[in-house]
Design goal:
- By secondary structure, this protein is an alpha/beta fold.
- It has one domain: Ribosomal Protein L22, Chain A.
- Helix content is about 25%, strand content about 30%.
- The protein contains 6 helices and 12 strands.
- A hairpin with a 5-residue loop joins strand 4 and strand 5.
- The N and C termini lie far apart (about 50 Å).
Length: about 250
């Protein structure tokens, strides 16, 4: 049994650069993208042309239009952004499901992960395993009922100190980002995944991974927390903001 390290920290200053400054080149690094759903609704028809037949059917199965819109924008964002990294036409970006249904891009050396909440989509790209999660801070959510099941006693005390929904959702995004990076999935072991600031040692069999991990949390936008989980040897992380109608993204 191998001990691995998980290092959690909060990034207090995150600067979201314009997409025109992105080189679309990954070298032992990571790029984090945020996409505003509302700002891209006018592109729904154009983004729909990038979807496969199966993806189009899935988009039409959502009971609510806002869920369908979010799916189309999310799928389109992946294809447009990954198309730039891979020098490939967006419509030729094929998304498949791997172990534990973790998505990946076919015939790609890059890894990606996506999360969405409320009016935001966040996409992480790296050349090693990556997990990402974002949550809208719902101050009316009664998190007391789930603390004992999903959080350690120390984590529960940290959250209860200020009865803070913000603290709850920040720690939650850390746990979920790690499970997505490793492909573990959410299960009864969630309370054993350390989410407080600092360095923690855990048994590798918790994740079926012998990588050391670093988890960075930050404010995605007002009332939204996000976290990324990256392998310890991943270098710089850059943050980018885009509307999909930027001239950097070609639909054809």
């Amino acid at each position: 049994m191998v001990q691995i390290k998980i290092t959690n920290r909060f990034l207090s200053e995150v600067i979201w650069g314009d997409s025109c400054g992105c080189a679309f080149s990954i070298n032992s690094s990571a790029d984090i993208w945020r996409i505003n759903i509302q700002s891209n609704l006018s592109l729904l028809q154009s983004l729909s042309t990038l979807l496969t037949h199966d993806e189009t059917i899935k988009a039409g199965r959502f009971a609510h239009k806002h869920d369908s819109d979010r799916y189309i924008i999310s799928r389109g964002a992946i294809k447009l952004i990954m198309g730039r990294y891979l020098n490939r036409k967006p419509a030729l970006i094929e998304i498949a499901a791997g172990e534990n249904k973790k998505p990946y891009i076919k015939d790609s050396p890059l890894f990606y992960n996506l999360s969405h909440s409320g009016n935001w989509i966040i996409l992480g790209v790296s050349d090693s395993a990556i997990g990402i999660d974002t949550e809208l801070v719902n101050n009316s959510f009664d998190f007391s009922d789930v603390l004992d099941e999903h959080f350690s006693p120390g984590e529960s005390r940290f959250i209860k100190e200020t009865k803070s929904a913000g603290r709850f959702f920040m720690l939650w995004t850390r746990k979920e980002a790690l499970t997505k990076a490793t492909g573990k999935g959410l299960d009864e072991d969630l309370k054993f995944i350390p989410s407080l600031d600092g360095q923690h040692g855990v048994n590798s069999d918790l994740f079926f991974s012998e990588n050391n991990w670093k988890v960075n949390s930050f404010v995605l936008s007002e009332d939204y927390f996000a976290s990324t989980a990256l392998t310890e040897d991943t270098g710089n992380t850059s943050f980018w903001e885009t509307n999909l109608f930027d001239k950097n993204f070609i639909f054809s």
